[in-house]
Design a protein that fits this description.
heterodimer, A: mainly alpha, B: three-stranded antiparallel β-sheet
Chain lengths: ~270, ~725
């Protein structure tokens, strides 16, 4: 069994070789009087279809079509190769026709969303293990509610035990909004602890006005704040892991549809240049 | 520290189904039920407790996940006593992504169909701006693309169709209609011609020196050459690349992608010039070597008392004349491409003008009675009417044994004459065989000669009496012979030159009176079928009225109407020579071949061979006609050859004395003489496009050009010197 690094280097080597072959073929064929765009276009179209087939493959689990992880590797390096082909196909220039510009835009949305997705799926899973408990995404609302219920129980307990309203008032004023649902999405995505620290600092600033019992209650609330913040962290990262596909998959279909029209157009209007 | 949030006890831990389409509406509040909605998105919370009947009582069936059995238990009718609040299920994230995907795909498809089906289709599908030249057509795709008139289904069909598509090229040719007869074939040439050229290039190339990249290209790409269907315009001319895009831009390697002989660059591997620029005979012959190295040097001897024109004085040693000397005769044309001769009057007349106009010669016989076989003609019983007894006068060459070209032209519509002519040629051959009785042949020859004589007399009668017609239309009877527009114009010129010229009318009248005083009566008798018998007319040897210094006069003793040329570009002589060239089969080629200087125009004699055709060369056309090159090379804007060259930009780079940098004279003066010695070649019609008279210049070598034309200096692109489209 080869190591991950070895496999990665091997895949990168194959990618570099294929990219070099494409560029060399382009360089040679551009000497010909024939436009290279037809050969590169059909190759690119075939590659895009093959890449799009990965989504179909995931549904056909019952067919022996190779492991999904292998498909993913092919999908990743095929996607990178498609960029080389696209540049060659566009002949290193930005198209200026509305339809071709739309097609280019769609390709870039799909390519860069895929590239972003690759980065996300490589970086986020590791980060998920660094903070708090790893929970299922679908269960986060339930855990959020449980924490909120725990906090509210503590707050209500304070009223009966201490006969003061300091902690309930503080909760209503500063904490209720925080416990209502997932918060500080962007801060968690970019690994900022500032909201959490601000909140804890706020609590600490009030602590000197509390008695011993109240301080014990506050300590339990602080623990729950940390748990909720960790849950928000999980939510933000897992949501990001899922949501990038909203750009990648729908626009892939749009790209395929546009490319079919493009293909028909260029052949019908080639005037014999093909 | 708090307890772990997740519990993995099967009772406490709900089974999540993110792959399902719907989820509980309370999920966001963290209160989702364990059952969840069904696949159509309907809440199923009411199923959390379905009481069952145990004996005569209903019992609660609420599972522990939902709080276990309730204290109240079911109602007597078996319904749950608890109030179950149903939710409004929501789509799962996966389902929302699916819906979004579907929406985007439908929008993409819809927008494509709307755009291509609607009136915006043209502007939407256009891949970019057109060049400025084609901009007026930018709103009508159909003016260039036939597919624009088709349906989408037809467009799809075009993708499937593997046949070559040249129909759009036909659209191009609607405007670009001056690209020759086969504009889509490679270089506008037919396949056979191209094949022979390819072989020639292959033979000229150095084997094994093909650049590596071309060898690769030959393997990787198919040769675009389609000898059957030609090449589509769009193959080279890529539109929609912006207003300022150069549609004619082609790289050297693209040019060579079709060529069988491939090379690195102009300086490295390009074949040496094959006698360039003398790829065909010069239209005007001028012996530069002899003129510069002999005539100008000894100008005093050649033209005693005359002064060499100013521009020609600085001719150096003759081999390297100054640019000023060259320019005294050659000036760039308006386009700067050619350096045409400034004309006879400017360049040649000072020395050669008098030669044409000198009047001490008896003039050129243009119309003459044949003197041949007078014995046969005057034999007893010959019915030719009056016929003069002819003698050669003033040392002029007799018009024996042949009919002059002008007469051949004028008689070419007379069937009797043509039959008689044919019979006479046949008889001559039979006589040469010597197998037949001479007396029989003599009788047949006399008959043919009589028919020929009557044809000539009818012609003279017609010329002298067709007064009712306008001068320009008198020769209209020849139109069936000279059918083309150019011929008709020549006939008109000839007719006007003859009948508007009083010297011709007078000469003809004098000749008719002297030779055939009863011509009207004789023609009448002939038409009645009663031709008169032979009546000899004796013309005194001194009967020639010599009162005309130019134009026509009747040379009565030798039966000729002679013409003194009025000067260079004499319209009549030009018209006669041009018309004679149209009917070369009528010219007496036997006489032409036997002459000392054999002109294809035969007995047009000195005028043709020694004067006109001394400088103006003759080309034989594909249809057999002879075309005299009256003017030097003229590049028509409607024609284009493989090679292009513009003199003007090169002149500005040349320093003094440097025309000879490219146009160096042959070192050996005998070269030019040898070229001129063989008059047979000189005066014969040029049938071989590669037979060159170089006018005394050495061919230009490639090395001359490669001094400047490299990629580092002024460029060595193929298109600098070559045209792709070749047409006439």
């Amino acid at each position: 069994m080869r190591s991950l690094a070895a496999r990665r280097w091997c895949s990168l080597g194959v990618f570099a070789l294929l990219a070099a072959v494409i560029l060399a073929l382009y360089a040679i064929l551009s000497f010909s009087i024939h436009p290279t765009s037809f050969a590169s276009g059909w190759t690119l179209w075939g590659l895009i279809l093959a890449l799009a087939a990965y989504n179909v493959r995931k549904r056909l689990t019952f067919l022996p079509l190779g492991s999904s992880s292998r498909w993913l590797q092919v999908h990743i390096y095929g996607g990178l190769l498609s960029f080389v082909l696209f540049i060659v196909h566009a002949e290193f220039r930005v198209p200026n026709g509305p339809f071709e510009l739309s097609l280019t835009l769609l390709y870039f949305i799909v390519f860069f969303s895929g590239l972003g997705g690759l980065a996300i799926s490589r970086a986020i899973p590791a980060r998920l293990t660094t903070r708090g408990e790893e929970v299922l995404f679908e269960r986060i609302p339930k855990f959020t509610k449980r924490i909120r219920d725990d906090v509210e129980n503590i707050v209500l307990g304070c009223i009966s035990e201490t006969q003061t309203t300091a902690i309930p008032e503080f909760y209503v004023e500063h904490l209720k909004h925080f416990f209502d649902g997932p918060k500080h999405f962007w801060q968690h995505l970019f690994q900022s602890s500032r909201p959490r620290n601000d909140l804890l600092a706020e609590i600490r600033s009030h602590e000197r006005f509390l008695n011993k019992n109240e301080r014990a209650a506050v300590q339990r609330i602080v623990d729950l704040i940390c748990a909720k913040d960790d849950l928000d962290h999980q939510y933000a990262l897992q949501w990001t892991l899922k949501v990038w596909l909203f750009a990648h998959i729908p626009f892939t279909y749009a790209l395929v549809i546009f490319s079919v029209f493009h293909l028909v157009l260029v052949h019908a209007f080639a005037g014999g240049a093909e | 520290m708090i307890d772990p949030l997740q519990e993995f006890d099967f009772r406490e831990s709900n089974y999540e189904r993110p792959n399902q389409e719907w989820e509980c509406g309370w999920t966001a509040q963290g209160e989702s039920c364990h059952i969840g909605p069904d696949c159509s998105g309907t809440c199923q919370a009411h199923r959390e407790c379905v009481p069952y009947k145990d004996g005569d009582r209903y019992k609660c069936a609420r599972p522990k996940n939902f709080g276990g059995r309730c204290d109240l238990g079911p109602r007597p009718d078996g319904n749950c006593s608890q109030r179950v609040v149903e939710c409004q299920p929501v789509r799962t994230l996966r389902n929302r992504r699916k819906l979004f995907t579907f929406t985007v795909a439908v929008l993409a498809l819809g927008s494509c169909l709307i755009m291509f089906g609607g009136s915006w289709g043209n502007s939407f599908s256009s891949p970019g701006e057109l060049t400025l030249q084609h901009r007026p057509k930018s709103k009508e795709c159909a003016s260039c693309h036939t597919a624009a008139n088709g349906t989408f289904a037809q467009w799809v069909g075009a993708v499937m169709d593997s046949k070559p598509k040249s129909h759009d090229s036909q659209q191009c040719l609607k405007c670009h209609d001056k690209l020759g007869s086969q504009p889509l074939m490679a270089h506008g040439m037919d396949a056979e011609h191209l094949k022979s050229m390819r072989q020639k290039m292959r033979d000229a190339s150095e084997p094994g020196k093909q650049p590596f990249v071309y060898a690769l290209l030959d393997k990787a790409a198919r040769n675009p050459l389609d000898e059957k269907n030609g090449l589509a315009c769009a193959l080279c001319h890529q539109e929609h690349r912006g207003q300022k895009f150069d549609l004619t831009q082609m790289s050297n390697v693209q040019c060579q992608s079709c060529h069988s002989a491939k090379f690195h660059s102009f300086s490295d591997g390009h074949p040496e010039f094959d006698g360039f620029p003398y790829q065909r005979r010069s239209r005007l012959y001028f012996d530069h070597v002899t003129h510069f190295q002999v005539h100008f040097k000894s100008f005093e001897r050649v033209k005693p008392g005359a002064i060499l024109p100013r521009g020609l004085r600085d001719y150096g040693d003759g081999a390297n004349p100054s640019a000023q000397s060259c320019r005294s005769c050659h000036q760039p044309d308006s386009s700067g491409r050619m350096m045409p001769i400034r004309g006879f009057e400017h360049s040649c007349a000072a020395c050669h003008g008098a030669e044409i106009e000198e009047d001490d010669l008896p003039g050129v016989q243009l119309l003459a009675l044949p003197m041949q076989d007078s014995k046969l003609l005057t034999a007893d019983g010959a019915t030719i009417g009056q016929w003069p007894t002819l003698t050669a006068a003033n040392g002029a060459k007799s018009n024996e044994n042949s009919v002059l070209p002008l007469m051949e032209i004028l008689l070419s519509a007379d069937r009797d004459y043509l039959k008689a002519r044919k019979d006479l040629i046949e008889l001559r051959k039979r006589r040469q065989n010597g197998s037949e009785n001479p007396d029989d042949l003599n009788a047949q020859q006399a008959d043919a000669l009589q028919r020929k004589v009557w044809s000539i007399k009818r012609l003279i009668h017609r010329l002298g009496t067709s007064n009712e017609l306008a001068n320009e239309k008198r020769l209209n009877y020849l139109k069936p012979i000279f059918k083309s527009d150019g011929d008709a114009a020549l006939l008109q010129t000839l007719s006007a030159s003859l009948f508007r010229d009083p010297t011709f009318v007078n000469a003809l009248k004098t000749a008719q009176t002297s030779w055939f005083s009863n011509l009207d009566q004789e023609i009448g008798l002939l038409q009645e079928g009663n031709p008169p018998k032979h009546e000899p007319i004796v013309v005194p040897p001194d009967a020639t009225p010599n009162d005309s210094s130019s134009g026509w006069y009747a040379s009565l003793p030798d039966g000729a109407l002679r013409y003194r040329v009025t000067g260079h570009s004499d319209r009549l002589v030009r018209a006669i020579l041009d018309l004679a060239g149209r009917v070369p089969h009528l010219l007496d080629t036997a006489a032409a071949k036997s002459a000392a200087r054999p002109s294809p125009f035969g007995e047009l004699g000195p005028t043709a061979s020694f004067r006109c055709l001394g400088c103006h060369t003759v080309d034989k056309q594909d249809d057999g006609r002879l075309e005299i090159n009256w003017v030097g090379r003229h590049v028509s804007p409607d024609s284009q050859s493989f090679t292009k060259f513009s003199h003007a930009p090169h002149l500005t780079l040349l320093s003094k004395n440097n025309c000879s940098k490219c146009h160096s004279q042959q070192k050996d003066i005998n070269f030019a003489r040898a070229e001129f010695v063989n008059y047979r070649e000189m005066f014969a019609a040029n049938t071989d496009p590669h037979s060159a008279l170089t006018s005394g210049f050495a061919p230009i070598s490639k090395k001359t050009c490669t001094e400047c034309h490299t990629s580092q200096r002024v460029g060595d692109s193929c298109l600098k010197c070559h045209n792709y489209h070749v047409f006439k």
